[in-house]
Protein backbone atom coordinates (compact mmCIF):
# COMPACT_ATOMS: atom_id res chain seq x y z
CA UNK A 1 0.00 0.00 0.00
CA UNK A 2 1.84 3.06 -1.29
CA UNK A 3 -0.87 5.62 -0.51
CA UNK A 4 -1.87 4.94 3.11
CA UNK A 5 -2.57 8.54 4.13
CA UNK A 6 -4.72 9.30 1.06
CA UNK A 7 -6.72 6.07 1.37
CA UNK A 8 -7.24 6.66 5.09
CA UNK A 9 -8.96 9.95 4.18
CA UNK A 10 -11.05 8.29 1.46
CA UNK A 11 -8.98 9.55 -1.47
CA UNK A 12 -8.26 6.49 -3.58
CA UNK A 13 -6.00 8.24 -6.11
CA UNK A 14 -4.02 11.07 -4.51
CA UNK A 15 -1.93 11.27 -1.37
CA UNK A 16 -2.63 13.55 1.58
CA UNK A 17 -0.54 16.23 -0.19
CA UNK A 18 -2.56 15.91 -3.41
CA UNK A 19 -0.03 13.96 -5.50
CA UNK A 20 -1.05 11.20 -7.87
CA UNK A 21 1.75 8.93 -6.73
CA UNK A 22 1.65 6.77 -9.84
CA UNK A 23 2.97 9.66 -11.92
CA UNK A 24 6.15 10.37 -9.93
CA UNK A 25 8.26 7.22 -10.27
CA UNK A 26 10.92 8.90 -12.42
CA UNK A 27 12.10 11.23 -9.65
CA UNK A 28 10.21 10.70 -6.38
CA UNK A 29 10.93 13.08 -3.54
CA UNK A 30 11.80 11.53 -0.16
CA UNK A 31 9.76 14.33 1.41
CA UNK A 32 6.72 14.57 -0.90
CA UNK A 33 6.56 10.94 -2.11
CA UNK A 34 8.28 8.95 0.66
CA UNK A 35 6.65 5.60 -0.12
CA UNK A 36 7.62 5.76 -3.81
CA UNK A 37 11.12 6.88 -2.95
CA UNK A 38 11.60 4.00 -0.51
CA UNK A 39 10.18 1.30 -2.80
CA UNK A 40 12.13 2.59 -5.80
CA UNK A 41 15.39 2.43 -3.83
CA UNK A 42 14.54 -1.09 -2.66
CA UNK A 43 13.84 -2.26 -6.24
CA UNK A 44 17.10 -0.73 -7.50
CA UNK A 45 19.03 -2.45 -4.69
CA UNK A 46 17.42 -5.79 -5.57
CA UNK A 47 18.14 -5.25 -9.26
CA UNK A 48 21.81 -4.51 -8.58
CA UNK A 49 22.21 -7.49 -6.22
CA UNK A 50 23.83 -10.38 -8.17
CA UNK A 51 22.16 -12.87 -5.83
CA UNK A 52 18.65 -11.69 -6.74
CA UNK A 53 16.85 -12.21 -10.04
CA UNK A 54 14.04 -9.65 -10.12
CA UNK A 55 11.52 -11.09 -12.58
CA UNK A 56 8.14 -9.43 -11.94
CA UNK A 57 6.82 -6.05 -10.87
CA UNK A 58 3.03 -5.84 -10.63
CA UNK A 59 1.34 -2.62 -9.52
CA UNK A 60 -2.25 -3.25 -8.40
CA UNK A 61 -4.95 -0.63 -8.89
CA UNK A 62 -8.73 -0.29 -8.85
CA UNK A 63 -10.43 1.04 -12.00
CA UNK A 64 -13.40 3.38 -11.72
CA UNK A 65 -14.98 2.92 -15.18
CA UNK A 66 -14.09 -0.44 -16.77
CA UNK A 67 -15.34 -3.91 -15.88
CA UNK A 68 -13.35 -7.03 -14.98
CA UNK A 69 -9.70 -7.38 -14.14
CA UNK A 70 -7.17 -6.62 -16.88
CA UNK A 71 -3.55 -5.59 -17.28
CA UNK A 72 -1.43 -2.86 -18.78
CA UNK A 73 1.97 -3.83 -20.16
CA UNK A 74 4.79 -2.12 -22.04
CA UNK A 75 5.88 -1.95 -25.66
CA UNK A 76 9.45 -2.88 -26.55
CA UNK A 77 11.57 -2.69 -29.68
CA UNK A 78 12.54 -6.33 -29.21
CA UNK A 79 9.51 -8.20 -30.56
CA UNK A 80 10.46 -11.45 -28.79
CA UNK A 81 10.45 -9.65 -25.44
CA UNK A 82 7.17 -8.01 -26.38
CA UNK A 83 5.59 -11.40 -27.10
CA UNK A 84 7.03 -13.04 -23.96
CA UNK A 85 5.45 -10.27 -21.91
CA UNK A 86 1.99 -11.39 -23.11
CA UNK A 87 2.36 -14.92 -21.70
CA UNK A 88 1.51 -14.11 -18.08
CA UNK A 89 -1.78 -12.24 -18.75
CA UNK A 90 -2.82 -14.99 -21.19
CA UNK A 91 -2.25 -17.62 -18.51
CA UNK A 92 -4.13 -15.49 -15.98
CA UNK A 93 -7.05 -15.24 -18.38
CA UNK A 94 -7.25 -19.04 -18.44
CA UNK A 95 -7.26 -19.22 -14.63
CA UNK A 96 -9.57 -16.34 -13.70
CA UNK A 97 -13.10 -16.03 -15.08
CA UNK A 98 -13.18 -12.34 -14.20
CA UNK A 99 -9.93 -11.45 -15.99
CA UNK A 100 -10.26 -10.00 -19.51
CA UNK A 101 -7.40 -10.42 -21.95
CA UNK A 102 -9.40 -8.50 -24.57
CA UNK A 103 -9.20 -5.44 -22.28
CA UNK A 104 -5.50 -5.94 -21.60
CA UNK A 105 -3.39 -3.29 -23.34
CA UNK A 106 0.31 -2.85 -24.12
CA UNK A 107 1.22 0.78 -24.65
CA UNK A 108 3.65 3.62 -24.08
CA UNK A 109 1.23 6.51 -23.76
CA UNK A 110 2.98 9.76 -22.85
CA UNK A 111 0.46 10.46 -20.09
CA UNK A 112 1.56 7.22 -18.38
CA UNK A 113 5.28 8.03 -18.51
CA UNK A 114 5.55 8.57 -14.73
CA UNK A 115 4.00 5.28 -13.69
CA UNK A 116 5.79 2.40 -12.02
CA UNK A 117 5.14 0.04 -14.91
CA UNK A 118 6.60 2.37 -17.53
CA UNK A 119 9.55 3.62 -15.51
CA UNK A 120 10.66 0.18 -14.33
CA UNK A 121 9.99 -1.30 -17.76
CA UNK A 122 12.67 1.04 -19.08
CA UNK A 123 15.03 0.55 -16.14
CA UNK A 124 15.07 -3.22 -15.64
CA UNK A 125 16.56 -5.72 -18.08
CA UNK A 126 14.75 -7.94 -20.57
CA UNK A 127 14.26 -10.77 -18.05
CA UNK A 128 11.97 -8.59 -15.95
CA UNK A 129 8.26 -8.06 -16.63
CA UNK A 130 6.36 -5.01 -15.39
CA UNK A 131 2.59 -4.83 -15.34
CA UNK A 132 -0.28 -2.89 -13.85
CA UNK A 133 -3.12 -5.15 -12.72
CA UNK A 134 -6.36 -3.16 -12.82
CA UNK A 135 -9.54 -4.49 -11.21
CA UNK A 136 -12.96 -2.88 -11.50
CA UNK A 137 -14.47 -1.06 -8.55
CA UNK A 138 -17.83 -2.35 -9.68
CA UNK A 139 -18.25 -5.72 -11.39
CA UNK A 140 -17.11 -8.31 -13.88
CA UNK A 141 -18.90 -9.72 -16.92
CA UNK A 142 -19.77 -13.38 -17.34
CA UNK A 143 -21.52 -14.72 -20.41
CA UNK A 144 -22.88 -11.60 -22.06
CA UNK A 145 -22.95 -7.80 -21.75
CA UNK A 146 -26.01 -7.91 -19.46
CA UNK A 147 -24.58 -10.40 -16.98
CA UNK A 148 -22.58 -8.16 -14.68
CA UNK A 149 -21.56 -9.76 -11.37
CA UNK A 150 -20.78 -7.27 -8.57
CA UNK A 151 -17.34 -7.68 -7.02
CA UNK A 152 -17.23 -8.75 -3.38
CA UNK A 153 -14.32 -9.00 -0.99
CA UNK A 154 -14.25 -12.75 -1.59
CA UNK A 155 -14.20 -12.24 -5.38
CA UNK A 156 -11.21 -9.90 -5.08
CA UNK A 157 -9.44 -12.46 -2.89
CA UNK A 158 -10.23 -15.18 -5.41
CA UNK A 159 -8.60 -13.13 -8.17
CA UNK A 160 -5.54 -12.76 -5.94
CA UNK A 161 -5.37 -16.54 -5.51
CA UNK A 162 -5.68 -16.95 -9.27
CA UNK A 163 -2.74 -14.58 -9.77
CA UNK A 164 -0.69 -16.81 -7.44
CA UNK A 165 -1.85 -19.89 -9.36
CA UNK A 166 -0.75 -18.21 -12.59
CA UNK A 167 2.76 -17.78 -11.23
CA UNK A 168 2.82 -21.53 -10.58
CA UNK A 169 1.67 -22.24 -14.14
CA UNK A 170 4.17 -19.75 -15.55
CA UNK A 171 7.18 -21.32 -13.85
CA UNK A 172 6.01 -24.84 -14.62
CA UNK A 173 5.75 -23.83 -18.26
CA UNK A 174 9.19 -22.22 -18.28
CA UNK A 175 10.75 -25.26 -16.67
CA UNK A 176 9.27 -27.57 -19.31
CA UNK A 177 10.24 -25.29 -22.20
CA UNK A 178 13.80 -24.69 -20.99
CA UNK A 179 14.53 -28.32 -20.05
CA UNK A 180 17.38 -29.68 -22.26
CA UNK A 181 16.18 -32.14 -24.87
CA UNK A 182 17.80 -35.50 -25.58
CA UNK A 183 20.28 -35.16 -28.47
CA UNK A 184 18.54 -37.20 -31.16
CA UNK A 185 18.73 -36.50 -34.93
CA UNK A 186 15.02 -35.66 -35.14
CA UNK A 187 14.95 -33.34 -32.13
CA UNK A 188 13.88 -29.79 -32.83
CA UNK A 189 14.36 -26.81 -30.61
CA UNK A 190 11.21 -26.29 -28.56
CA UNK A 191 9.51 -22.96 -28.74
CA UNK A 192 7.28 -21.27 -26.21
CA UNK A 193 3.74 -22.38 -27.08
CA UNK A 194 1.22 -19.80 -28.21
CA UNK A 195 -1.74 -19.29 -25.90
CA UNK A 196 -5.25 -18.39 -26.85
CA UNK A 197 -7.67 -17.20 -24.24
CA UNK A 198 -11.01 -18.26 -25.63
CA UNK A 199 -13.11 -16.16 -23.26
CA UNK A 200 -13.89 -12.61 -24.34
CA UNK A 201 -14.94 -10.51 -21.38
CA UNK A 202 -15.36 -6.81 -20.86
CA UNK A 203 -14.56 -3.99 -23.23
CA UNK A 204 -11.52 -1.96 -24.03
CA UNK A 205 -8.83 -1.32 -26.60
CA UNK A 206 -6.47 -4.25 -26.74
CA UNK A 207 -3.10 -3.98 -28.44
CA UNK A 208 -1.95 -7.40 -27.27
CA UNK A 209 -1.70 -8.78 -30.76
CA UNK A 210 -0.08 -5.71 -32.31
CA UNK A 211 3.56 -5.20 -33.12
CA UNK A 212 5.65 -2.88 -30.96
CA UNK A 213 6.54 0.57 -32.12
CA UNK A 214 10.12 0.95 -33.30
CA UNK A 215 11.80 2.85 -30.53
CA UNK A 216 15.14 2.12 -28.91
CA UNK A 217 15.56 0.88 -25.35
CA UNK A 218 17.94 3.79 -24.73
CA UNK A 219 15.17 6.19 -25.71
CA UNK A 220 12.77 4.41 -23.37
CA UNK A 221 15.17 4.94 -20.49
CA UNK A 222 15.79 8.55 -21.43
CA UNK A 223 12.04 9.16 -21.33
CA UNK A 224 11.98 7.62 -17.82
CA UNK A 225 9.14 5.33 -18.82
CA UNK A 226 6.55 4.48 -16.24
CA UNK A 227 2.90 3.60 -16.50
CA UNK A 228 -0.25 2.71 -14.80
UniProtKB/TrEMBL annotation:
Molecular function in Gene Ontology: metallocarboxypeptidase activity; tubulin binding; zinc ion binding
Swiss-Prot/TrEMBL GO biological process terms: anterograde axonal transport of mitochondrion; central nervous system neuron development; defense response to virus; negative regulation of cell population proliferation; positive regulation of ubiquitin-dependent protein catabolic process; proteolysis; retrograde axonal transport of mitochondrion
Cofactor: Zn(2+)
Domain Peptidase M14 positions: 1-171
Membrane-spanning parts: none
Segments of skewed composition (Basic and acidic residues): 210-222
GO-annotated cellular components: axon cytoplasm; centriole; ciliary basal body; cytosol; Golgi apparatus
Active-site residues annotated for this sequence: 134 (proton donor/acceptor)
InterPro entries cross-referenced by the UniProt entry: Cytosolic_carboxypeptidase, Peptidase_M14
Positions with biased composition (Polar residues): 197-206
Region (Disordered): 179-228
Family the entry assigns: Belongs to the peptidase M14 family.
Protein name as catalogued: AGBL carboxypeptidase 4
Organism: Aquila chrysaetos chrysaetos
Amino acid sequence: MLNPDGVYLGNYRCSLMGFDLNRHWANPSPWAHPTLHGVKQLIIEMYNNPKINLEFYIDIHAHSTMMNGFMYGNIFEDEERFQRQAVFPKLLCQNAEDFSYSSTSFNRDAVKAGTGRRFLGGLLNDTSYCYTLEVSFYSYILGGPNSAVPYTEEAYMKLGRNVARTFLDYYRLNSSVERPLAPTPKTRKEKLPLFKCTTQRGQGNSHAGGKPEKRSQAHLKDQSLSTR
